[in-house]
Write a structure and sequence with these properties.
Blueprint: E1 2-9, E2 16-25, E3 33-34, H1 35-38, H2 46-52, E4 56-57, E5 64-65, E6 73-77
Antiparallel strand pairs: 1-2, 1-6, 3-6, 4-5
The protein binds zinc ion.
Length: about 80
């Protein structure tokens, strides 16, 4: 089991923001990888589906963002 921080690409300001969510995964990537890449051809685990349904506040514009493109949601190993 490894911990991952989740980052999303922001369509508002074209930067990448942390979602402020940490998830534990048994089958996560070794390096930073998008969800779209990591689960290509597979269905997403329920905890990932739940996680990406959350909104993130863009610190630059103050807007609530939700990234619908799984290729723009990144898992980054902690530590
Ligand atoms: Zn932003």
């Amino acid at each position: 089991m490894a911990d991952y921080d989740v980052f999303v690409f922001c369509d508002e300001c074209a930067d990448v923001h942390p979602m402020g969510i940490r998830i534990a995964m048994n089958d996560g990537p070794v390096d930073k990888k998008s969800i779209g890449d990591h689960y290509a051809g597979k269905s997403l685990p329920q905890n990932i589906v739940n996680m990406i349904s959350n909104y993130t506040t863009c610190p630059k514009t103050g807007k609530m963002i939700k990234q619908e493109d799984n290729n723009q949601v990144f898992l980054v190993p902690v530590g």
